[in-house]
Amino acid sequence: MSNTGSANPHDDIAEILIDEAAIKTRVEELGAEIGAAYTGSDSIVLISVLKGALVFVADLMRAIPRNVSIDVMEVSSYGGGNTESSGTVRILKDLSGTIEGRDVLIVEDIIDTGLTLNYLTGYLGGKSPRSIRIVTLLNKPARRLVDLKVDWTGFEIPDKFVVGYGLDFGEKYRNLRYVGVLKRELYASAIGEA
Questions:
Q1: How far is 92 from 76, CA to CA, in rounded Å?
Q2: Which of 96, 102, 109 is nearest to 68 (CA)?
Q3: pLDDT tens-digit profile of 46-97?
Q4: Minimal CA–CA distance to 121: which of 109, 131, 136?
Q5: Which of 6, 26, 82, 165 has the most neighbouring CB atoms within 10 Å?
Q6: Residues 58, 123: contact at Cβ < 8 Å?
Q7: DSSP three-state, residue 190
Q8: Cis peptide before 93, with omega less than 30 degrees from 0?
């Protein structure tokens, strides 16, 4: 198999780490927990970090039993085809609206080093929100480089190369309904393996 992958994305998955049913159940639980935590707030804004968190935020906002608004940001700390964070964060798309005086919930697909999210919370904090909290679908603490408070975690995962449910490799695999581990031969050259 070449490292361009198969026509069928399911064929490129070594193992399913979190299946569709488990994701659906956990997203419903997160929605209920988040709704309860924001009792009395009428100004919650979910900020989706593009592109990976799009699938998660779409499901999560429907699971939160209160009014919410959404905005999106696109940030990058990865250059070109790199799979490792450079540590330098660039904002490619900023917020469309104001968050001043509002309760902000940053919605992430995966947190590994924490460098991007650490920068983002500081940046958003400068816009005078009432509060900033973080929810992530996947948390990979083995790779953490900064101390970061994550308020809600869908799943804690081992240090494996995962795709699906919004997460990609080379803009592929986002449409998988589960989180799977990509076959090593497909990404080995991108991480410097022979």
A1: 7
A2: 102
A3: 999 989 999 999 999 999 999 999 999 998 875 544 455 556 788 999 999 9
A4: 131
A5: 165
A6: no
A7: helix
A8: no
Instruction: Please name the amino acid found at residue 130.
Output: R
Given CATH 3.40.50.12160, say whether it is the number of domain 24-156.
no
12 is catalytic: no
Indicate the pTM of the whole model: 0.89
**CA–CA distance, 13 with 51 (Å, rounded to integer):** 21
Tokens 């198969």 belong to residue: 6
Continuous segment of H or E residues that includes residue 34: helix 20-37
Is 180 exposed, middle or buried, given 0-12, 13-18 or 19+ CB atoms closer than 10 A?
Answer: buried
130, 162 in Cβ contact below 8 A?
Answer: no
DSSP notation for 74-107? EEE---TT-SS--S--EEEE--SS--TTSEEEEE
Spatial neighbors of 37 by CB under 8 A, at least 6 apart, are 133, 151
Angle, helices 54-63 vs 20-37, to 10°: value is 60
Amino acid at 84: E
Sole residue written with tokens 């940030």: 75
Segments making up each domain of the chain, as ranges: 24-156
d(CA 189, CA 91): 27
